[in-house]
């Protein structure tokens, strides 16, 4: 359950990261703002008429939003359903899509009307200016500092951060050491393709990474099925279909939280490009690829579209954060197509959700994401009870420990939980093993101090012999760069070696 909660926290962080680009007034189909229910109106009217304090319109809006969230949370908690929730999506005049966004490139969580930075997009406008765990506390408006904690609600805070391409905003930021500073950042276009390819430098192996699944929305986003199809067609023409019996396509679904079903299957809609399962698997009217069963109990069955199998092999990478639609794709490729899975066991999400747009309030869209039913593969198996058959490849190196996050200076002989991730980084960076490895429990011992001094000397930093911000920033830069380097991805490189050894 702990892992599931972490997964949901990750999804919530992504949904809330509107500065990272989820300004999508066009991406989500328009909805009309409805009326509040009678009970809410009656309570609000009573407060306006008889309550000792004056009730402002902003307070009514906040109360209404809180009532929606409380109702949804109550139903979800009573059914032990971690997936049903109220989703908040800031809107903007700037169109965006799942393949790119306009913003500064951060993810965050709201914290007492401030924004706690949780993630920095590599190459984004904030990269090198703001760091994880920094707190955005305000904005400069007409040369005057506006602090968010003086505002009335999260909604009001977010409205000040709405921006379009080439807008420049000066943010007020505090770091974990308590220093406040100004950061001027210009909103830019940042590509975030839901599917992309990278040249692995292998003559017989091609690679497609799918980060999540989005549906097609006319004039806004092509959808993952189209993006995947374009990449696959090019790879087939250039390599996979040339002497194809010795070729392998790696499909990487690690860290993919799922998304739109239409990216996997168009459901027979001829006006939409076939989904990824239809592009890769054959059609057998007697054997569905997978089934989805809602509350009504009426199953929807989904089938492949090819007349003959692909002429090359497919290998699929998954891990414990491959969930929902990613698990559907992995399941059908494995059980129907016979293509092996590698990595670690998947998340185990055997239900699917739908979305109902509720209200638009002050350029913020509030939507209900609710569990609609269960999905099944391989003649009635559910991934929540029947784990997918994965050939285990344990991850090592840069991807095997958490991103170090600075939370203030740590001195010799102190204990700090976050220090453990920095100790793990130093073990990785200096390739330590056995008895030479640093402890990773967060205790700042003499061995940790010595290695921090060595790192500061090597990186031409001021030698302070403590974990300070300058050291943490340099570690963050190295960690982020290595995380993007596929040559340092042990699971992927091990799979490549396995494929080559079988040729």
Specify the biggest β-sheet. 6 strands, antiparallel
Count the strands? 19
- Low-confidence runs (pLDDT<50, min 5 residues)? 1-36
Shape: globular
Number of domains: 4
**Run of helices and strands:** HHHEEEEEEHEEEEEHEHEEEHEEEEHHHH
Short recap of the structure:
By secondary structure, the protein is an alpha+beta fold. The protein has eleven helices and 19 strands.
Account of the protein in words:
With about 500 residues, this protein is an alpha+beta fold. The protein has 4 domains: about 1-90, no CATH class; about 100-190, PDZ domain (Pdz3 Domain); about 195-355 and about 380-390, 2-enoyl-CoA Hydratase, Chain A, domain 1, CATH 3.90.226.10; about 395-485, Muramoyl-pentapeptide Carboxypeptidase, domain 1 (Orthogonal Bundle), CATH 1.10.101. Helices cover about 30% and strands about 20% of the residues. The protein contains 11 helices and 19 strands. The strands form 4 sheets. Strands 3, 4, 5, 6, 7 and 8 form a 6-stranded antiparallel beta sheet that branches. β10 and β11 (about 205-210) form a beta hairpin. The two termini are about 40 Å apart. The relative contact order is 0.10. The model is unreliable at about 1-35 (pLDDT under 50).
